[in-house]
Design goal:
alpha/beta, about 325 residues, 5-stranded mixed sheet
Length: about 325
């Protein structure tokens, strides 16, 4: 067993290196991914080791980047596309939702598009406008796309490899403020299927459901609640499309209370779908309504105000208290 301690950024870099090394049809494309190694250094050293034909610096043209990746996928390649920041993906939105997501169905299953679109997302880094968005619900709503987000280094390493090996297009959201969080990675043992939720902490009184950057916050909230005698379970979804509703249902039936936490705005967020589905599935097991914690329905604020915008420990614990009060 080869277990190493590494950051999420390092885990992603090692996973991409493994993908390039094992399959000559795998390519990486994006703005500054080559010589610079990406603004977060996720692709650091890859162009040097694999060449400019495998790790390609592109023009600043997201629509063109994704469109080119679609063409390469049609020719048998497995492109990995980097969108430099979450807010930059929208020029490519048309290509992603009308071409990338639909080609398999349009061709009656005869065409596969194994494209991974990497998107660093979320706030917490003091960035300027269009650099701190959480648009995952927009893509999870689109049939034909898989949407995932790791919360730790082990998942970052393995989920990236599983995404690259998928014959379906995968939108891979990377929680940028967690890039430097470290954890143990077993590089020889796959932890589980790509779209399977994982129980990050066992509990019996209430379930916190989260993914990506908010899993750490929920674990901190569960630890704080434990000091007050409350047993809180934390479920790491890992995947927003498809969602492992069976795992949420099992936990909900055990604890009787569910709070869904995500960084994106609550209004029309992924928590709304989870709350509706779990209410349908678990109505007679629930001791309280499914509650949601998330961002406000406003444009992402300037860096000085983002601590007020981002769901933190206090807002999660407040939801826990409200749920337990029913």
């Amino acid at each position: 067993m080869a277990v190493e301690k590494m950051s999420i950024a390092k885990a992603l870099n090692e996973s991409l290196r493994h993908a390039l090394d094992t399959d000559p049809k795998t390519l990486i494309m994006g703005e500054d991914v080559g010589k610079l190694g990406g603004v977060f250094r996720i692709t650091d050293g890859l162009q040097k080791d694999f060449g400019e034909e495998r790790v390609i610096d592109t023009p600043l043209a997201e629509s063109g980047i994704v469109g080119t990746a679609i063409g390469l996928a049609l020719r048998g390649y497995r492109p990995i596309v980097e969108i430099q920041f979450d807010g930059f993906v929208f020029p490519a939105y048309d290509q992603i939702v009308t071409q990338l997501a639909k080609m398999h169905a349009r061709a009656l299953g005869k065409v596969k598009l194994p494209v991974v679109v990497r998107i660093p997302y979320g706030g917490g880094i003091g960035a300027v406008e269009h650099h701190s968005e959480s648009p995952e619900a927009l893509f999870a709503h689109v049939a034909g796309l898989k949407v995932v987000s790791p919360s730790n280094a082990s998942d970052a390493y393995w989920m990236m490899q599983q995404a690259v090996q998928s014959d379906d297009p995968v939108i891979f959201f990377e929680p940028k403020r967690r890039y430097w969080d470290k954890g143990e990675v077993d590089t020889e043992s796959i932890p589980g299927p790509l779209h399977k939720a994982v129980t990050a902490r066992e509990g019996s009184d209430l379930t916190l459901v989260a993914y990506g950057p908010m899993v750490k916050v929920c674990l901190e909230a569960a630890a704080a609640a434990q000091e007050e005698g409350k047993s809180v379970e934390v479920l790491d979804l890992r995947s927003m499309a498809p969602i492992d509703f069976d795992a949420i249902q099992r936990s909900a039936e055990k604890t009787g209370r569910v709070v869904v936490v995500h960084e994106a705005p609550v209004f029309y967020g992924s928590g709304a779908e989870i709350a509706a589905r779990i209410t349908e599935r678990c109505f007679y097991h629930l001791e309280a309504p499914v509650l949601r914690v998330g961002g406000y329905s406003v444009p992402y604020p300037p860096a000085r105000l983002e601590d007020e915008y981002l769901p933190g420990l206090d807002r999660v614990l407040d939801a826990v208290d409200r749920s337990l009060a029913f």
